Model the fold of this input.
Amino acid sequence: MVATHPGPCTSRGEELAGAGPGVATMVMHACIATAPQRGMIPMGLFQHDIRNGTAWVTFDSGGMNTLSQAAVTDLQAVTAAIAKAHATTPLAGVILKGNKFGLGAGANIGELMGADRAQLGRFIDVGHAALFAIEESAIPWLAVVDGLALGGIYELALACRAIVATEQSTVGFPEIRLNIFPGLGGTQRMPRRSGLVNAADPVNGDAGFTAVLQGKNFRAKEALAIKMVDALVPSGADVDRFAETYLRETVPGLVRETPPDLANAEALKGMILPMIQRATMGRPNPRAPYVALDVMVKGAGLPLREGIKLERDAFVDVATSAEGKAGMRFFYTQQSVQKLPKSFPGRARPIKRVGVDGADGFMGNAIAWLALEAGYDVVAHVPIAKFVPAVPEKLTTKYGRALKKGSMTQADLAAKLARAKVTTNLTDLQSCDIVIEARMENPEIKAEFYRALGKGMNPAGLVASNSSSMGPGLLGSFFAEGGGRAKNFLNLHFFSPAEHPMMQLVEVIRGKDTADDAVATAHAFVRSINKTPVVLQDGSPGFLVNAGLAAYMLEAEKIYREGTPVEAIDAAMREAIFPMGPFELGDQAGLDIAAGMFDTIAAATPIDPPPLVWKLREAKRFGVKSGAGIYDYTDGKKTGVWPGLAALVPNRGSRVAAKDEIVERCARTLYRKARELCDRRIVASEEECDLAFVFGIGFAMYLGGPIFYARQRGWV
Done:
């Protein structure tokens, strides 16, 4: 969403709270998936007809299907109608199909997220009743996957006698990524189908565990190898004809033997538990994978209905916990920011050619690579001619792994690089549809560049700076001084290393002069390179994430000045919330970059005492990249805190804070800054604010982000 309202932002839950249950339910039904679903017309979501002695059931919501309460109600009605028809005229079976997107993308997260324990329990019970009606039907059901079948939708397919899929299809259980786990029988039916360990699959190994516990989605051929589907529709074959033939000729003789390793479930648990502990960095949270593993192991020795009862109770417990709510809220928000509101007046302009200034640098080269990967033609601008060779060299390095694996040939690489024009000529940039500047954080250097670019820039072209601190108000004024259109100027702030798929966030910062079309175009571009855009308003030094990071780092410094060792502060925050502590993070990101961030903040609001990173910059201790920062490094590995650090803090105290105090002080500081930026409408909602801190600095997703975390602890 885009910040347009003048008042302070609230959570979406608060906005719904006073609207009454009818309005809240309607909003929640506008699920994360995409297109609106039809109303609760009998059999409106699941439609059926009978042809040649076969019942055909089509699940079509008009967009991406999700298993909502309305959908389950329709499914029950269709199942009953087919059973009644079969009692009159025997049928060969039932074929379950989806729409152009496939069977669907899972349960309706909006409904799950808004339910309490009793409501969720009732919904799950109704879902199980619907799936058991299919599984225990007098005639066989065949699920056809032609696209997606994920989460609860794949659990629906598992209740069918057999599953066939087209080669381009994808199936899986993504629930673990939402801090929950499959709750419609997936933890019980999947092991009974594939086995807890499928040694015949050298790639995925422990199939049942992998499918459920890693949140991985499987392409059709992988799914066939680990028995997640029973057959693939041959390429070019008519899907309906293949399905009907398979139903009539293969399904009647299909025998599914009980995998022998179900009897060894308890012993296998000992093999899998260390994998979960590594994935969660040894933390007991998030609980979902631990609980799911326990349910799978215990359920393996029980009759199916008893195993599903075990799963049901555990699922309700986890899904209604704080971390379950946090995970679903995060996912819901992540989906919502993929689109601008329908009411947003701007329209995206087409982009074919992407210009990147500073493409010889670390960030600029990464942005150029992302554009190439997305299929754009790239103009890679290098200010100094001697650095021109660095562009293809760095791009080639990024393809090194693909070349080594054999997924890319030298010919493929050559074709990619041919789409990147490396130039020192500024006029080559001026004809691009979008230009992204990634120069060093120096206002004089940027001013010179933007004045020159503005003199001949394509009037319809979008111009964006990757600056982490200088906003579109300042930089756009330089562009306008050269003759450029300020309405086409904004910031696209990527996070390093931008080429890494984990670095999802891109802050889209609009200035007071930025046009709505420019915002829409930038938003669409960020989506096209597989990143997650969060739209912000200019007006905060450091924008959103860096502003919060600066406050957090200053509080950590304050605790250090009082007497707590650096290692203790890092360890406390690493154990409680982040993948690394504040000082470790500074070293990893680059203390020179952090110092520049504080320069910008201090220009607006003086900082007293001066940040340690300023003194470390003077000492040329830039962090991991220089082998010397707050910590010392050997071959990139931390060897200990720099002995000279204490000398930079005269009159340092001797009070050592307890771990809980460290965590609370740092988390409260981050919350206060997040709250301030939200209230000032720098960001549109609490949910988007929290999403940015999870993606931007690694705030643990299962804790929800600084605002959610604060609410759970009663600080708000």
Notes: The longest strand covers residues 46-51. The CA atoms of residues 182 and 577 lie 25 Å apart. The radius of gyration is 28 Å. The domain at 545-712 is CATH 1.10.1040.50 (N-(1-d-carboxylethyl)-l-norvaline Dehydrogenase; domain 2).
